[in-house]
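re: that chain from earlier
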Amino acid sequence: MASSSGTQNVQPTIASASVGVAEVAKNGRGMKTDPAWEHGVMIDEATRRVRCNYCLQEFTGGAYRLKHHLARTSKDAKSCKLVPDDAKKAMEILSMA
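^ sequence. v structure.
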């Protein structure tokens, strides 16, 4: 009689899962792995237009400009006046890297 657990026939597919990951460029178009995307959204990928989740300001420039906007560096973007302090500090560190 067969076991009712159903775990005996399960085979891990680690090799096939890792193949797809290696072929995709990190932070390429369509890949939102940058931590800045927790604080903004891409409106139009063709023009790299983004919107800040805090002040709702829209601008072009992608994650780079979003980081400077949130870090309030005034470099290439107007500063966000509504960003929380923890997000501001995290973006300051990322924008300096």
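The chain is about 35% helix and 10% strand.
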